[in-house]
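On clarity, I found the account of how folds are encoded harder to follow than it need be. Since the whole study asks how a given chain folds, the encoding of that fold should be made plain. The format is easy to grasp once an entry is in front of the reader. For illustration, here is how one protein appears when written out as sequence plus structure tokens.
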Amino acid sequence: MVKKQSVVMSVLLIGTLSLGVVCAEETTLATVNDKVVTQKDFENYVMTHPAPPGIDVPPNKKFVLEELVKREIVVQDALRQNFDKDADFIERLADVRYNMLFEWAIQKYLETHPVTDEQLRAEYQKFPPMKQYKLRHIVVASMQEAKSVINQVQMGANFATLAMQISMDPMSRQQGGELGWLTPEQMFPAITAIVAGLEKGKIYSDPVQSPIGWHVILLEETRDVSPVPFETAKASLLPTVRTKQTIEYIDELRKKAEIELAD
């Protein structure tokens, strides 16, 4: 008997909660010439008019409600004047419906074809390891000075010592010209162009010019650095996979369709 009573109370409670949800959606916020503006109308407006990126504030209820009232007044006047029966309006409405159906079909396809980790990993593996170069440099004012430095290093002079003595780069000079590990994107383009062909432990045989002067370049080491970890990259890979899914969906439909293009 107690068990049966508990079941009845549970059903009644669920029914009460459901009714509460329905009532919340149908709560009247305003009436305009007997037309009701509900909480659901309010929520729909907020959802379709989000705040600008970076602004995380709750919607201004008074502003939104006033906007809904204004819209309702104008729509009622449009209906009074039979604008909904205007040929141009009907044509534009058909265009809106057509475009919405296109987007809706794609959305439904994507919903029924969720992206898997396997698909994301396949996309992730297309990104090769990133190459980094450990460099030292000496910066001087002229090509002739740079050639003189190259000759001195080739004759056995210590690169780090020369850098500390004569390099114009105040940031690296105290570290013997050391620049640390750099990717090609972090270098001047002229330096990027030559490092890949350099032998480890060797200097480039010619001076390299950049906006800050003439460089003598020493490549100390190279290494491959793995890209961002898969779990971190997943979110950024999702749009690419989704785009591919959409293309595949449309291609499947195209194969089944009879298409004739006019000349």
In short: The longest strand covers residues 213-225. The chain has ten helices and seven strands.
